[in-house]
Write a structure and sequence with these properties.
Blueprint lengths: L1 H11 L13 H22 L7 H20 L4 H9 L13 H18 L3 H21 L10 E9 L9 H7 E12 L4 E10 L5 H11 L5 E5 L8
Antiparallel strand pairs: 1-3, 1-4, 2-3
Length: 237
């Protein structure tokens, strides 16, 4: 009985393409494309859940598995040749919005799904998609890697006159309204007549941000001040 079960499982998780021939049948092509499209849609829905992304990234993530699957099928199921052909696309240079680490991971997962579908291992592709989507959903639900009380962490950009000695100029104000404040960047602007200071702070209370900004405006001559949420993905200060 156990041997029969393993035989059925081996058959289920084997490639739909014959191991003795490299020809692609219409049935096999349609099955691979359908599986790649469905699994790509599932991956897209899971990885965009509670994660704001651009429309272009969403479409790319959904369309990448069938594209990779076709590449693999068109090189007669040879994985090495397929990767080599796919690598030629790296020669195309284009401008795009910088992606986060999670988006890059999703792109790699989409490529892996497409490779599995292109090789004919549809059951393995489906199982892989289910496992990775379940893990991603679990990590998102438990907030893995998310900072607690994220609304308290802010990035302040304060514009000050060029002649203001900014080192320690706002320490007393930060001590009153924040647990910690760290100067992370200084940038000159307006032909050097102004300095833009970037601080990363942790507020003591979320409802004291306006009072903090009012105090800072009195100190910097009512010049521009901006406040934004600190994000670990953003690299620009």
């Amino acid at each position: 009985m156990k041997r029969e079960v393993f035989t059925v499982l081996d058959t289920l998780f084997s490639s739909i393409y014959s191991t003795t021939t490299s020809s692609i049948t219409l049935t096999g092509f349609l099955a691979s494309m359908a599986a790649a499209l469905v699994l790509g849609a599932v991956l897209t829905l899971v990885f965009t859940y509670k994660n704001p992304t651009s429309k272009s990234f969403t479409l790319t993530l959904a369309m990448l598995p069938p594209v990779v699957a076709v590449i693999i099928m068109m090189v007669s199921g040879s994985l090495g040749a397929g990767v080599a052909v796919a690598g030629t696309f790296s020669l195309v240079r284009f401008r795009s919005q910088p992606g986060t680490a999670k988006e890059i991971c999703a792109i790699f997962l989409a490529m892996a799904i497409g490779l599995a579908c292109g090789m004919g291992y549809l059951s393995f592709a489906a199982l892989f998609t289910v496992i990775m989507c379940a893990v991603s959903t679990l990590y998102t639900a438990i907030g893995l890697g998310e900072r607690r009380n994220a609304e308290l962490y802010r990035r302040l950009k304060i514009t000050v006159p060029e002649d203001l000695e900014y080192a320690g100029a706002f320490d007393d104000i930060f001590a009153e309204y924040t647990h910690q404040a760290r100067l992370v960047a200084v940038k000159t602007t307006n032909l050097g007549s102004l300095n833009k200071l970037t601080y990363e702070i942790e507020l003591k209370k979320p409802d004291t941000e306006k009072q903090l900004i009012d105090q800072l405006r009195c100190r910097n001559g009512n010049l521009e001040i901006s406040s934004a949420v600190q994000t670990t993905d953003a690299k620009e200060l």
